[in-house]
Amino acid sequence: MSYQLYRNTTLGHTLQESLDELIQCGQITPQLALKVLLQFDKAINNALASRVKNRIQVKGKLNTYRFCDNVWTFVLNNCEFREVHEFAKVDKVKIVACTDFIQLGYRSLHTAEV
Amino acid sequence: MDVQKCLLLLESLRVLPEEFFSANLTQYKRSVLRHELTKGLPDVLELLKELMNPNSPADVYDHSLRCFSSWVEFGVPLMEGEPVIVQVFNSLHNEALFDTAVDTLVNVFSHPDAHRFPYTIQKLLPHVLQLQTMFQKASEASNMDICQGLSQIIVAVAENHTKLIVESSICQEEGRRQNSMNLLQMVLACSSLPGHYPVDENSSNMPFTFWYLLQDDILASDAEKYRLLLPLYQPVFFSLIEILLIKVQYPPEEEYETWTAEEKEQFRCYRQDIGDTMMYSFSILREPLLGHLCSVLAGAVENSKITDLRWQVIEGIFFLFGSVAESVDLEENAYLPTLLSLLPKIPCSNVKFISTALYMIGSFGEWINCHPESLTSVIPLILQGLGNAEVATAATMSLKDVTRENLDHIQPYVNQIFTASKNALDGNILKARERIRLMSALGQVLSVLPFDDIMQYLNTLLTPVIQELGQLVKQEPTPAVRANISLKLNMLSWMVASLDTDRPTSENMEGQKQQEVKLDQPKPVFLVMQQVAPIVQELLSKWMNDASIVELVCELFKRSLRTLMDDFAPMATDTAQMLIQMYQTVPHAVILDLSKQLILLFSTDERFFSTLKVLLNSLCDKTLELYQKGLQNYTDVIEGFMNLMAQVLKKTKPLLADGTYNIPGLFQAGVQALALPEQHTVKAACSFLNEFLSVGSELPALKQVVNSDGHLLVDRILRAIGGESPRGVVDSLSDVLNALNKFYVEQTSKCMNDIIQTEGYPSNRVTLSDKEYFVKMVLRERGNKRKHREIVKEFALKCRGLYGTEYAAQISAIV
């Protein structure tokens, strides 16, 4: 069972809109649409965990923090993102992170809604 | 033994628990199935125990292992599975079974229920510890497959049972204490595999999570337990630091050059993980860690007098120092002064070494602010870096960090910073990003000076930039000219953003006295913009159609507006006219954004009221023209326009009050924008319409339009809810419907009741009865936003044939 938080991304939303349209046209059933979404969850979790190796440092002023049902939610103000030579600053960032219990020996947090 | 039958049986048994997870069953059937499988578990375990013996054929043993692994995932109480688990450990010594055995043991120790069997884990620990000899032999023979497999098992145990390890290390039983400490030594051995990650070995990264969890559990202990744990674990973490000091080092240069780009990137991420682990270690070891690093550094420097200095060693130490910089107490003055004073004495010209040293200096920016005497040694080092193309990135970043944190103390160094920066800018060594970053740092630095000094420096610095911009503007547009213009605009933009002379400092009281004397003096940024503005006008005449240039121009003005605030006033009229001209030529969202800032800041100033009215009128008229050309081609502009109008209605109503605007046209524009597929545009239109409906109750011109054209809005919303718009905007649409209910309840009620009589409207999946119920509920719950949204969402699902489906329920949870 993979995390579903990536459905709330541009890619996830676009997929859902497409599936909605196909259901409305009667071309697929809601059950098939659900299977597609579950496969999307698996694929994107796997891709982010295994194919993305970048590291970015995030530094900012912690406005709020919340931990519930193994999900951390942070809101940072005046946030800096740093990756080697790249540097970006934003006024406000919300980070939603779920702990990855599945992978061993490699600390990773699934994040979305950054 | 009939091997074939055996294999078939094992395969069937293996698949059973897998099917349990993948089959589509009701809750009730699933629990019945679980019960049956659990009942059969002892028989399965008994069979596997029999088959997993040294006399069994390799195939049978292998299938037995896989079968057991499958049942472990289903859920095998550890104490019941213990005999089989012991056999799995034994099978590690069989090369053909090694990989399967590793996977099985990892599953056993990392299963979420394993923590419920601490006693069994303790009993199994000696079997893990016995792997030490095997691990050592594999490490010496550079057998990375074995090392990786055994590391996986060791880390699986340690990482998933950290609390148990910590508790055991201070328990009464000597045996348990010893086992815990021995396991820690094994994890250290995993971290210290010889060679460079990821080329020579690929397992030393596995324990990083464990080290984090360990320090977390130690720090989370109560005071009494913490007092017992600290002396036990400090030596462990010191051993870890010794290991990290080696593992963080770059390989010899000729070897590093043979690595692929992928390997170099993996190594960079690995070093980042080492940095994070250092940070966690610091929370346990505190200042003595700094002392340790200092003595290692001093030793390395001392040794360099006898043998050649290996830059990798010192670079590694600097990297580790930089990793803990954020955590060091700002009052620390035992070790860091020694470190910073050693810096200039270390001879090395290697690029990576210098870059890391500069990054390290930058990371101590905040600490330096509490120890400003350090600036004497670090500023010259940073400025030296500016003159070296290969380390300029690190130098500019470090300068920016140090100056940002040390504005209270930077004044004595302004001249040398400025001179070195100017030389770097005049030379051809800095890349575009570095030039822009340097301007930002210089803006910060100059902001602490008296007015006359600022202007003197600015004239020297910016005159060539502005002159070059003026010359570029006269040239014919080409990609090279565009790139240069973009660079100049960016440099100016970052300068005006950081040159904030009103920034509060700890010496503000004294500074403020100086400022009060010169209140009638314009701000330096204003004077810069006065020079730049005519050139920008000329620039726009040639580059008005270039979106990237228009963006940069707007960004420049936006930043100067943010820095100057009310002091921007003398430029407001000309800027408004510039925006009108720009938007008339090529409508662009960034123009609307800047217009919004300008309007919100100056709309209450009588001097600019009429100018801003003209600006707003012009933006409205031009945007409404776009609708004739096909609004789907301008969704970003429409989004920006809707956001602008929402803010204007919310905060500057008087601007719209006199009725000279095309209010019906604006209302229609909002209604039509609801039909667009882009969610952000629809949400912006909903914001605008919400404000329109709310303000309409006070402004007759708006109210009249709603009364005459409100039915168009109701129709648009219902059709959108009914399926013409994505579900992601249904909540926003619900809020607009709620606003209609709140402020125009009679009209809305009549309109909705009329419109739903049409068959098949807004969807042929809902009956008249469904629609009537929906309208009744919507009208009843007016004012209750949350309830209103639920009702609308339910109706939207019914219209789309999704009501009651699992698919819709899952999406609703996210949207």
From TrEMBL, chain A:
UniProt keywords, alphabetically: Nucleus, Transcription, Transcription regulation
InterPro entries to which the protein is assigned, alphabetical: TFIIA_a-hlx, TFIIA_b-brl, TFIIA_gsu, TFIIA_gsu_C, TFIIA_gsu_N
Domain Transcription initiation factor IIA gamma subunit N-terminal: 2-48
This protein's record includes keyword Transcription regulation: yes
Domain Transcription initiation factor IIA gamma subunit C-terminal: 59-99
Pfam annotation, one family: TFIIA_gamma_N
Subcellular locations according to the entry: Nucleus
Similarity section: Belongs to the TFIIA subunit 2 family.
Function recorded in the entry: TFIIA is a component of the transcription machinery of RNA polymerase II and plays an important role in transcriptional activation.
The protein, known as: Transcription initiation factor IIA subunit 2
Species of provenance: Tegillarca granosa (Malaysian cockle)
From TrEMBL, chain B:
Family of the protein in this entry: Belongs to the importin beta family.
All residue ranges annotated as the Exportin-1/Importin-beta-like domain in the record: 3-105
Protein name: Importin-13
Subcellular location: Nucleus
Keywords assigned by UniProt, alphabetized: Nucleus, Protein transport, Repeat, Transport
SUPFAM superfamilies xref list: ARM repeat
UniProt source species: Tegillarca granosa
InterPro entries from the UniProt entry: ARM-like, ARM-type_fold, Exportin-1/Importin-b-like, Importin_beta-like_NTR, Importin_rep_1, Importin_rep_3, TPR_TNPO3_IPO13_2nd, TPR_TNPO3_IPO13_3rd
Main location: nucleus
